[in-house]
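Write out the 3D structure for:
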Amino acid sequence: MERTPVTTLTDLVELVPSLLGFHAHDSIVLLAIQDDEVVLTARTDLVEHPAEGLAAAWRRLPGAELVVIAFSRDASLAWVALDDVDFALPDGTERILLHADGEYWYEAPRDLGVPYDAVASVHLVEAAWAGRPVRASRDELYALVEPQRTPAEVTASLERVASREATLSDVVGEARALVEAFDAAPGLLDIDDATVLCLASHDAFFLDEALMGTNRDNARSRLALWLQVVGASVPNCAGGALVAAALAAWLAGDGAMLTVCLETVVARPAPGVWVDLLDAVHRDAVPPQEWERVRAALDDAWVSTMPT
């Protein structure tokens, strides 16, 4: 990702939507800063005790300076939540607490406030120019994991795929080729290709291979691939594709999409080992840079369980 210069608190407030991928509403956002760089962004709902949802982030970076911003039009609610975080932070932690209401940000409840541009800042323009969409709210992210095809379209696609693929092995072989082709040239999937990938994701060996083959270089294209599969599939059959999308979202630095995928997959059959892993990644605010270490550990664990 390109580096964006930030010199003022107004810059930080305006940068948050670009970091999250959506405009935060009734949210607490924590920015951890080390060596004059934002190294971690975490968000939680503006609830009674928001510190519980952010603690993993500051524990991971105990020496970082923290900027904690409550995004809400309700000033009283915002400052109660900020007080909760302030009280929970370890002694000695450098922190700045701000309330942003969509027009002004404040460092104290009775401040006059400093204006900022919530909808057309230079940071949002730069994100759009770089091809990183900033959505109006988290609801738009949830829409990406909703069915995009009618039941009749999905049924017809399943019938077409079944008529040309004799065995699951044939489906898996075609799915491997589709993933490889998409990595080389991302684009829009035909519904039958999405059906092939969804069916193949029920094969544990194929899904493990696809997940282990995801990295920080191909993560964004893999996320686009698996979200298309989710949208073109029967919801209860899309658990594997959702897990693949969640992993790709993590590696692409899209924590919001990771959260949406994990919340959605809960009600659907999915590979428990991967769901547990991604839950732990999310809960402990594990940075995507850790993936190579995690992947190596998984490799070792699987090798040790193989029959001799």
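The radius of gyration is 21 Å.
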